[in-house]
Amino acid sequence: MARRVGICAVAQTTIEQNKWYERFQGMALEVLEKLREQVPVEFSRHTGKPGIDMAISVSDDVFDARTISDNAMTDVLGAHFGCEEKVAQEGIQAIYYGLAAIQSGHCDQVLIMGHCKESQAKSRNMVTHVAFDPFFTRPVGLDFCAAAGLQAQAYGEKTGISDEQLAKVVVRAREYGTKNPQLPEVSAVSAEDVMASEMLADPIRALHAYPVSDGAVGMVLAAEDVAKKMTDKPVWITGVGNCMDSFFFGDRDLASNFALKKAAERAYKRAGITDPRKAFNVIEISDQYAYQHPMWMEGLGLCDEGRGGAWIDADGPNKARVNLSGGMLAGNPMILGGLFRAAEAALQLRQDAGAHQIEAAKTALAHGVMGPAGQFHSVVTLERG
Amino acid sequence: MNKNRNVGIIGVGQSEYSSHREDVNQPEMIHEAIREALDHAGMTIDDVDCIVHGNMELFEMVHQPDLWHTLGSGAYGKESLRVTTGGTTGATLCCAADQLVASGMHDVVLAVGFEKLQEGHTTGGITNMADPLWARQLQTGALTGMTAEQVINEFGEERAKKASMKYRIIMDQHAMKNHKAHRRFDLQWDQAEDLMYTSPALVGELRMIHMCSQSDGACAMIFASEEKAKQFCPKPAWMKDHITVHREECFHIFGDAPVLMSHRYAAEKLFGRNGIKDPKKEIDVFEMYDPSSWWGLDWLREFLLFEGDEHLKMVENDEICIDGEFPINPSGGVIASNPIGATAMIRVAEAALQIMGDAGDHQVPKTVNQALASGFGGTMWTVLFLMTREIPW
Predict the structure, then answer these.
(1) Measured between CB atoms, does B31 come within 8 Å of chain A?
(2) A7, A56, A184, A194: least buried by Cβ within 10 Å?
(3) CB-CB contact of A361 with A384 (8 Å)
């Protein structure tokens, strides 16, 4: 049995729509300094003393408009004459990799640092447009928002979810977002505001979509024996799982949650969870668009199949304590969705979540998604030490 | 390091390398390498638990290309991870695959690195690495003449240029034995004198003939737990250890203080913790990431921890030839084939093939018990691997 791995420190910047005053290295430095206030983060490889063995950065070359954009991060990550590797996928995958690196025996301590400045691109849809293959689908003009529109239609057709129910998701997310000090720009909205907002990709409206966001998030992972010395409130990673769906929409049932179901199944299996509905006190999911909030809960097996709309009406999100941080709909840089979700889940378990803290949560689930119409899903399960 | 469990390399696949692979798109090209790796390991995609993918996405300008490449990689329904670290990407993919297996999370992991440089602009892409405000005006992409300048200053123009050309020709002779290699010129010794003065200059004494190619191509490797490795493969190449060392700055800006290279630092650490005292004697073959014949020449000294001119003598005395005492890059090296996101993986793959005895026409004529492979990228970043024929633990 491979050794346990704990999240020992968690930090984030504020999330704003345009951090024009800060470079991405500056955002990362802010996170690093906050981490150092929580635990000793040493880069003492020259002395042979224990310290960070590996830094994992999370970013995306196209968003950064810089080839090998992690090259500019070496000093902030303390990687001078050390190891830095970049996960260029959904940010929560850095936890997946960090876990493997520690369990393999190669490392005892891993620093994770993700950054994204969506404001630097004229439109994030220009970036996600080039995720489509250049020959067959790119000429169609698809981007992740348009792809989500197709999935929202498929999900709506399957479940009959209404515009009112989707509006409730957004109203709730914004309300929780106003309590989260990391989201200084979030304001509350009414259901009428949501339903009157501009249509982006039918049935997705402007307020159904997560706002363009800049921000950075980081954490320190450590092997059990090291973690216990570092902090008196480690959060153990109990399970991880992910899954890739097909690329072409013609090969997929967009409303099926195929990849999320498999990702969740794998994480639950590794965590020894047999009944997911009883397993989590807090849940953080990457709801980039309002329809995804109920849909992903179905995929995670936490809401009855096809009953997402009724689940919203029955106060399901509050009962299941989903996205008390506000979630992505209140603000979250795109490629860092899952990493921010994991950070928020860990803060809850550590009782460090501030105004949106709930009492004594012991277990949590964090979820990340990447690709058109949820092609790739990741699930991480956590437990308070 | 207390590794959780042994990891064996049991399958290697490579596409054909060429300046233009217009006959295939990206997923098809990747599929070529993956198909060969699966066949080599004697398994099907159903035996694979996880796909690790990497390249430099700004080169081809496909955002998160692992999504599209699912068509060719077989990632559908599987776990996956995408990692990228510039020129070292292929090496980093091997580290990731090794760790995913060693951790116990997976029994079989398939790693694939690729680049289709024809679809982008390599030097333009690399120049974009630099800070847009302060450094982009100074960037020359991958082309730097500094090492040539240093070697010439240290050893004199004639000896340095001759050694560099000799290194280049030896690599070409190796590439001639590797039917997948991109550039195979069939260079002859009597061309050396002419080429070292007439080949077009790129930067200073770095000339076209010294420099690596831009290639299209993909490399795939299968990493397996000890149990699975033994089940599928009669002679796995075992991953003993690897180390990753990054430097923040490529150039030393603080006067004349000696520069510690990441290559030397990595080699000292790796050899130290694996009890290697005389690397030249204890290692049987070295697949080195050599972007130019100047760098290849110079880096021999760093990796093998030499002082003085021992590295030059190795070249001058034919020791680095395929049938020499210390063969370097029997595959032809990076100078012959350079699909960037795959290049560093090809080094690991070729070293593994040498241990397995499966390198075909470019197999070295001796038993390879221990092999070294290196990746290079970024601002002097190094990933260094030690692989063995005997199971490590």
Answers:
(1) no
(2) A184
(3) yes
